[in-house]
């Protein structure tokens, strides 16, 4: 598959997206106007996507593929962000890191009176049938679809393998996180995109209504804002506020070097763990580590610059 | 306690409420403007409260005290409302029916960047410290406080016995439903107001932020709109759309008469259950029942008119 | 209510039951012919009910009202019956002992092809609509309705308050055990009959089919045969094979006297627990206990004879 | 291993099976006479096995290896069969489809009086020791052993690796579904036969009794009849009534072609998902799809005919 | 019952206890010598019991009967004691406060080789049969028996109604907390002593061994030391280190007065909750509260002194 | 990595261990003096490690790599050891057998007063900061670290990938069993050492205190003594008392030959399972099996002797 679409098509995408974006904001039950999104993510240091979401740069997304949950924990807890992690998921492809920008969607239990009104409002804005595909069609390269399906299993299958495949194409392999279910697990197992879900079920989506696109949502005990940097590993998923992305990544570089060096020393079989970890006690070892850290950081920075 | 406040005080309440109501709508993360509330509850056949919520009349609230879950189920499922019931709660006072108008509140896991912005916005609108009391201070007589605390136990205690007592005073004994916890259970057990919660914990509320007042929320698998008629019994809680309130109550009258007659016949010990229930097979019995039903309905209507 | 029906009516009941009994045996999916029932309960020392079930005598039922789970455990485990207890129920009336003869009913998930055939067979035998009431209408005084509803909650409500009331009348207050749900808990709470269930739900029974009446069933980890002596207390429910009923009751008399004496001695405050319990160490105490036991047993036997 | 046994041996198998089949039917607690089996599966359009079970033809079993849960769901729900799916299993070999004819077995908690009688009856019919192997020895090529062990873990291990291996040989790799446990997981992991179970445990089977062979059973929320077409994938297991087997398979062919085409279009990267899925909006695309569907169906039918 | 034993008997008790205490310390698997107990509870400001446990004075026990979980939480969290609370229990008598000094007992799964050795060691120290009664016989007035039975239900029943009654006599109504089960719930329900347990079961204690008496134990997530002040209410149980007992109680007095005043003001119906709670904003009200607090504290202190 | 350290280094290890071992025994809350360890494992037939633990010989460890749970169950239940198995773990490397000598560690919820005292005592014995590494630094080749972290997930992560790597080096690939969590699962997944844990979490260890090293501990329902032979397979973990190790292994040899022969006969496709399993009925087959068993046992013994 070709992720590098021609420039012209990209512009078309942009315009199309802009059109789609305007409409649902007015049509959906949980409205979260563009200005609100911008206000509540005011600390974002990066550009924004056409829909107003912070755009964590592609280069940082690339670096984030090396992250694990523990790399992220250190920075986030220091900054007082203790509710950005969710776990307890089934993983479609353990070992494949999930990285992307959060595209959030909220569903609620179907309620005919409210849904009729929402569909009527949507129709006025040119949307026939407000549903999961309304949101899916808005996905951009680099996005991770993050869906609050309130843990629903039966009828709570946000996608099957066809739309799963579409998401892979549209997000360039971004990924899916759903506090709910998927169907067609046999098909999904063949498609190489990271996915986190609570359950699988043979039923298609039903008895729910789409209530928000790119609104603040909750996934388990985590608070997710549109545009968050989403990183998932075997343990679970972190939703990193954009303003912390760079700091997380820089700190992770140090953690990786630290672990590299620590294991090297352990492999020598000459030290008790506490002589080396979490930091070397002996001044000579301390110095050795500091030099190693500096050398490797330099290498990494050089590498990053060259990209 | 005197629920019948003097007229003057009522007006003051009204004005105060109006003031409070305007502010949070703009300050909260999940905004749900007054017009949206009116649009999405357009089928409401009753007056509205100053804050825009449908006002199910006091007379209907009184009648609703005789409802049980099964009375409600029949009408709601017929109309396609299958997601208006929530159960699995601990009850503070089993046997005491919960009845009132839904005043909804939403909390989410604390996220400093978003919360700081929300608090700043609140301050601009004159609210110092957006928190549980911001919502609680807006409660009206006849309200039931319905809180989405996302099932949180530790730090998820929306009130202790002091605020529980306040709610009883402010709502005239309305009640509380929280998908989360309360604290001070010993104290709450002494206060005669129906309450439904998931758990208790000695910790006070913390690590959460208030994100919406009188916005659409989810309680378990139920979809709750501000102004819904809330009815709770030993089994759980129903959130009845206002436009269905009258129909539910009328049908319940018939169900009660049916059950009354059915049990009378069973008590005679002359019939197999299927001869009487769910409806009598024998034409004579059928007639007897129809006459009984009519007579009792007449009595009830007379009684209702006299009130 | 008058449990003592006139003799004539009793005969009518008997004949009616016999009619009903013959039919379903042939109509139901899980057939368990009368001869099988008799073969598999061949150790029954008592008369049989018209439907072939062992009839634990009324006098023993009366005595059984004094039993608790622990009284029963001792005899049953000694005889190698380790799977006759089920717990984990919600109790409608804790503190009210459940006693009666097991009338078993089995439901299974609805399957149209099988159900159509079963209904057709039932019709041939004169039964219109094979369903919960088919079984309920066959209940006799002294019965406890024991229902395998495979733990189903939604749509798994074997009865609401109307049929619950009927069961009380028909069984003379026998009781209900259902590995499934009931509805109308508010109504049931007003009716003075012991009941054990897994859950409550506002939905009526549905999406299931009746597959057996008075067939061997499983309730949790317990194996229940029609005619078992059912005894329930705050802890759970025992299903006692009729051939062990007398032995259980006799042993319980001794246990009660033992506990009576033990507590009396403890109340004196002069002994360490191990001097008295489980049996007194001191020869003088041993003798005192033996005499007490004999005296009380004599009193009990006299009392039982006088009844 | 050679699944294609010589003809002579097959006849011997048949006769042996017939002998075994007659006996247990009379010996087991839950009797389900051959005529009942035939009556309750009267809609079966295929031949029957010697034991009376519908025999879904081998050619359909082969086609069924391409099925996934979602392929089956569509047809079954349309026909009103909503209780034919069970999930929540541990899979021995995820990714290996389970296909075969249901051979059902029911166990219940051991009860000495009933078991003694059952063993005595079995002995009269020439069976020494009614137990798991009584049923296992009756398995035929193409069978899947489906066991109701009521979710039991400790002592609820229907087989270890030896009998697991035997089942593979006897059923020609058919498979095992048990609402209970297996032991010897290390050994089972080496044997290439699909298996679905709730748990593993080191204890051997015990404290249970065999109560039915080829009787209707319940697995989770599913109703299983002997001879059902069993299909299991990563999500769970479907028990398909034989009369629906062909329709399920034909519809699955269309679903597969639809998904194939849908993904091809998505891969082109030119369409929003709703333009293509669930059906193409544009008339030209609609036509393209219809032609593709027809062409592929023709190919498949040709292929099926050639086999 | 007479809790006030004559002085002579008390001395006998003391001596007996001393004898018993010395022996098990040496006989039990988890040894915790008297000196260790004293070292690890060195901050205890009170006298000690003969067995070395801190002896929170009877006067403080009396005051503690007015405590609720929330009163305790405030002081403990301030001091960094976050693991002294356990909940999730079944309560024998909700509404009856549990208060006493922790007498801890630890059981572990039976292991014949270790148990044989322990029994042999016990015999050397004059204890025949190390078991639950070994510990129970050592209970003193004012004790609460706190048992780590590792959550065991079947065979994990530390006492039935006989020993439960004994504990009531021996501890003068102290109470029981067991991370495990009790049996004879019907009997226990008649005995007026607070008790907290995880489950009930008809089996007697078995398949376990006594491994420690008055050793540090864990109950759920709480760390319990012998001699801790145990306080239980409807929410759960707190294990308060003796050195914090007085501070907890003094602070609770203030909390109670605060809540009293707060509710009085709320009852007036003139204030929004935030004007009064958690502390009054208006200087006049602040003063009013301060005066009220002082007056009531004075009353309480006078009352305490008079006792 | 080189597991075969030079002799000199081994002696150093020994001395260092001896030093470390003496200290913590006195410093830890749960003291278990060397003499106690020796007393309670008096049946150990092998040498002891410097710390007093039984030393199951390396040759037996090697043979144990062929064990599965079922091989062990047979011998242990026969000897009355029914509480030596724990399951319900997540496995880092399913299919990789865990074998080694139990090195036990106990943590409890942090309690500042007790922990301060423990740290002070540790300091006196030369240990700065009693914590997980205090124990980890004492690990010997052939050890399996077995940790009672009372099922804690958040803050209950006994190691991350760095210390996990250290354990692999120090124990020569022995392994880890923790009734609690690990962190850095991504890193751990790359390190080839068997590990059993309840959960993973990004938090580091915290809010706990080390209370015992090489003391008797409980893991789930299993009782673990220091020096037990630990064997883990896909099903769970067995803790085998050293005195039973040889018998378990010898019996396992027979079980393996039995299973080998049984499967060979099944593969021939000529027998019903009950003709062969669990033992052959036919005298000729019986003889064939006996000869096969003898021949294979001889081969195995020869092989074992040659090593």
How would you portray this structure in words?
Six copies of one chain form a homohexamer. With 307 residues, the first copy, chain A, is α/β, with parallel strands linked by helices. Chain A contains eleven helices and eleven strands. Chain A has helices spanning 7-27, 34-40, 58-64, 69-78, 112-124, 132-136, 161-171, 185-188, 245-268, 273-276, 283-306, and strands spanning 85-87, 90-91, 98-109, 143-148, 176-182, 195-200, 208-213, 217-219, 222-224, 229-232, 236-240. In chain A, the strands form two sheets. In chain A, strands 1, 2, 3, 4, 5, 6, 7, 10 and 11 form a nine-stranded mixed beta sheet that branches. In chain A, a hairpin with a 2-residue loop joins strand 8 (217-219) and strand 9. In chain A, helix 1 (7-27) crosses helix 5 (112-124) and helix 4 packs across helix 9 (245-268). The longest helix of chain A is centred in the last third of the chain and has 24 residues, at 245-268. Mean pLDDT of chain A is 92; it is low at 1-6 and 8-24. The A-F interface holds A 68-70, 72-73, 77, 85, 87, 95, 233-236, 238, 259, 262-263, 266-267, 269, 272-274, 277-278 and F 1-2, 5, 16, 133-134, 136-137, 160-163, 165-166, 169-170, 183-187, 189, 200-204.
